[in-house]
Amino acid sequence: MIYEERYTMTTLQSGTRDYLKLTRERVFPAVRTAGGEPMLLLTGMIGDCGNAALQVCRYPDTATWQAAQRHMTVPGREALVDTEEVRLLRSVASRPKVIIPPEDRRPVYSYRKLFINPTDLPAFVEDSEKGVWPLYEAADCRVFGLFTTLSGTNPLELVLMTGYKGAWHWEETRFAGGKPADVDPKLWEQGRGLGASRNQLGVRGSWVRLWRAHDVN
After folding, report:
1. For the domain with range 2-88, which CATH number is right: 3.50.50.60, 3.30.70.100, 3.40.50.1000, 3.40.50.2000?
2. What is the pLDDT of residue 123?
3. Can you give the pTM of this predicted structure?
4. Neighbours of 44 (CB within 10 A)
């Protein structure tokens, strides 16, 4: 599987609504017909402008992705787009899920970019899957996926996307006040311990932005 990350700046902030409508009604159906799967449709909330849009679509292979590209020129779309950047990613963990259930959807998503040593990737994934992610999901977050670029780089770029109930929920899950009352103590210790282990791998840079989610259907 490959994942297309499409970052779009619409021509006007007031035109973002028209861009979202056209994407849902014209672009995403065409992507599905070509064999792709629209997964996320986001607009800037904190860290990006309100007229920034981010789409994530999944494709079984590059040939299917290439075939779907002609649908990006649907009538009316060009007038709504100011600039656009597209790149392909691959999953490096157990997320995204094969099928994402409706109860996993959240109204806000964090987009965290990290840079690590390529040799640290297996340990980073293991610490995430066995400790960090279970702890965060116990706090009602939902990890959408962990990705890297198709090309190998040093440092290795990772993209981690996680769903939250709101910006306040993201802030709450920084756990500044210690263990939440409803989180199992064993899960807390394991998550914090493996989180510290992951941090010691030598993350060479990181930043995060928050995005508002929109229905992909």
Report:
1. 3.30.70.100
2. 95
3. 0.94
4. 20
